[in-house]
Amino acid sequence: MPDRREQELDLHDYLTIVARRGWLIALTLVAVVAATVFYSLTTTKLYEAESRVLLRSPYVPFGGGGGGGNTGTGLGMGNLSDTYDLETELERIKNPQLIKEVRAALPTFQDAMLSNLDVHQVGKTSIVAIDVRSPSSQFAAQFAQGLAVGYIDHTRRMKQGATEQALKYVVDQAGRAKADLDRAETELRTFKEASGIVDIAGATGSVASHYAVLSTQLDAGQVELRKTEAQLAGLEGERRAVDPRQIAGLTLTPESSLGQMRAQLQQLMLQRMMLLKDYAPTSRRITALDQQIQGLQDSLQQQVSQIAYAELEQSSPQLQDLKKRKVALETQRIVTLANNGALATMLGRARGDLRLLPGQQVKFGQLERKVKVAETAYTDLLAQEQALSIQQAAAVASASVLNQPDVPTEPVSPQLKKNLVAGVLLGLLLGLVAGLVVERLDDTFHSPKELERILRLPVLGLVRLKTEGDTVMLQDDDERSPFAEAFRSLRANLRLTSVDGQPATVLITSSGRGEGKSTCAANLAIESARAGQQVILVDADLRRPALHRYFNLDGKRGLTSVLVGDMPLAEGLQSTSVPGLRLLAAGGLPPNPLVLIESQAMKELMASLNQEADLVIFDSPPVLVAADSQVLGSLMEATVLVVETAATRREMATRTMELLRRASAKVIGVAINKSSRRESGYNYYYYQYYRDDDKQSVGGQ
What we know:
Blueprint: H1 4-7, H2 11-20, H3 22-42, E1 47-55, E2 59-60, E3 79-80, H4 86-93, H5 96-104, E4 116-121, E5 127-134, H6 137-195, H7 206-242, H8 257-275, H9 284-307, H10 320-353, H11 359-394, E6 399-401, H12 416-441, H13 448-455, E7 459-464, H14 482-496, E8 505-510, H15 517-530, E9 535-539, H16 547-550, H17 559-563, H18 569-572, E10 574-575, E11 581-584, H19 593-597, H20 600-612, E12 615-619, H21 628-635, E13 638-644, H22 650-662, E14 667-675, H23 684-700
Parallel strand pairs: 7-14, 8-12, 8-13, 9-11, 9-12, 13-14
Antiparallel strand pairs: 1-5, 1-6, 2-3, 4-5, 10-11
Helix pairs in contact: 3-12, 5-6, 6-7, 6-11, 7-10, 7-11, 8-9, 8-10, 9-10, 14-15
């Protein structure tokens, strides 16, 4: 398996791949650019219009801002919250129902297509941009404006709905409070007329005074409880305006966790009221008890937070502020209930002490306090009703339109120039990827450098293709041609492969058919003979002999005739037209050539050939076709593998080398046949030199 160094490619290799696959890259680039132009010219043009909306702090009709509790006005007029949920407002603008209403308001554009709607925050400001894309420029501008106005109108209607529901509840409560006040005043007036008591202060002693204080505190607690419940009812109305789902209230049964915590709190408050008879509020016992009460109230608020409006956890973030206020009010209600329970217990005990007091005086005080409580509740509800009426009449929206979009005159899509740039870049990228993929799938050799890296053999010669129609053999007039120089270079490199000089026997073979081994063997023999050597060319391809046709000699007598003893070596050798070159043709084709190649006669023949010539060149069958070449390679001093780049597969070449090395053949290098003009720079300068020299000779003539 090739090591990692054989697979590494440098920058020059990549540039060579790009140059070799340039046609594929160019074709991919043209296809992508053409597709881009076709898309840009045929796709529907889109126009974009933008409207901007400024968001102000939303008006909250009940409670406070972030704290969620009452801000000192009871159910009061409400206030401006400090923050709003921007993500919720963006989703409200993109609400399908709102989009449907805006389209219905544009009857002339019922068939217009809304290609894209983008609603986003502008930077870190409180401004929201509404971008509309459509094939109709008029529709894009009018729809953007209509959506901004529709959102503001929808917000105003939503706030009006919440205010109307809260006002309806307050009016109903005010009517009930007025009826309670009327009944209390009637009862007090009737009692005064019947009993003749006008002032209870002089008739009550210390016990009655304590009873009165407890009664007053309990009545105040009841008022506070009603106010808290009214706030909760208003808060529920506001929630239903945003989320109409029915949500169950809190459970305060004795078995529930909240009911148990309420009972514990009531017990602690009762202990505190009893201790206040003998201890000052700043005493250690009272202070310790206050800390317990405060800790229990904190735990109660956490428990309420986990239970109250649990369904809101997965709802719109706009409702989370409602939950905070709900938790605060529910906690306040439970604490008030516990305090009222403790006061009721203390009041029951004090009532036993009042049995000694005149019943008429006690009754007078009760009626008088009842009138005061009813009057206070009624006054508060009237103020709340007035505040909500003002809010309903004002109906101030929490947003305003900043600009009216202009009708666009130029389309934003498609953009031909931008698409062309993107198409060119994409085409180049895809072309490069396609070129690398094709290169990866191509299993042939593309350059001598690649061949040397994979086979780990030097390139001894690089033979250029002659002009189509010319003979593949060297001619007398080829002395100065690159074709002849290639074989001179091959002969010279053969001499340099060993410190002992040129090998006496050389095997020329290849991996498969058609790679030019016979041509290379014949031309190498011709060039060696021209250099003054005595050369014998042996056609050892006993399956498809070809050398006798190159020299127009008799192919019936030759190697097989000598090996089987039909004729002596001297008779088998034939002289060629090249001085110093003789040919030992293949002779008759035997049924089993390998038997002759492996025979003792073959070894004796090689010894005789070495005595007859300076250089003996053998042409053999392809290595992957027959085992003859492996046997011959083991008998030779040197073996040269002929490879045709762009035709010989790497797997075939590596398999050939494996077989030759296994047969102990001494493979000294590779001869590349049918190479292109600039085969990675090899012999380029020589070819260019001779071409320029030929031009100069023609010019001189």
